[in-house]
Amino acid sequence: MIYSAQVLVLFALYLTVFVLAVWATIDAATRPAGAFVSGGKRTKNFWLALTGAATAVAFVAIPAPLGFGALSFLALGSAVAAIVYLVDVRPAIRPYSGGRGGKSGGPAGRTPPRGGW
C-alpha cells in the first residue's frame, strides 16, 4: 500500500514538472521577441530552446504509463528552467508584450522603462 502511494506521489511530481515546462514553453512562444530584449532578459530563441529542452526531458522522465521513466534525475533541471522562466523572465517581459498579459501603459498610465543602453 505504501509503495502504491509513493508511486502515485512520484508520478504527480513528474507530471507537475512536465506541465510547468509546457506552460513555460507555450508562454515563451507567444511573447514577441522584442519583449525579451526590452525586459533586459536573454533572447526569445534562448528561452524557447531552454524551455523546449526542459519540456522534452520532463516528458521522458515521467514514469511509465505516460512517459519512459528515463533520465528522471534530470527532471530537477527541467523544473529549475521552467520555474526561472515563470517567476523571473515572464514578469519582466509582460509589460512589453503588448495587449497580452499585462497592463498597457504600465502603472498609473506611464509607459514602462526601456531596457538596455
Q: What would you note in describing this structure?
A:
The chain contains 4 helices and no strands. The chain is elongated, with a radius of gyration of 17 Å. The protein has one domain. Mean pLDDT is 86; it is low at 101-106. The longest helix has 29 residues, at 2-30. The chain has helices at residues 2-30, 33-38, 44-61, 75-93. Helix 1 (2-30) packs antiparallel against helix 3 (44-61). It is an all-alpha fold.
- The count of domains is 1
**How far apart are the first and last residues' alpha carbons, in Å?**
60 Å
Question: How much is the radius of gyration in Å?
Answer: 17 Å
Order of helices and strands: HHHH
Secondary structure class reads: mainly alpha
Total number of helices = 4
Broad shape:
elongated
- Report mean pLDDT, rounded to a whole number: 86
Instruction: Give me the count of strands.
Output: 0
Largest sheet: none
Strand content: under 5%
Low-confidence runs of at least 5 consecutive residues: 101-106
For this structure, the quaternary state is single chain
Helix content: 55-70%
Strand and helix layout:
Elements (H helix, E strand, L loop, with lengths): L1 H29 L2 H6 L5 H18 L13 H19 L24
Helix pairs in contact: 1-3, 1-4, 3-4
Task: Please supply descriptive tags for the structure shown above.
117 residues; mainly alpha
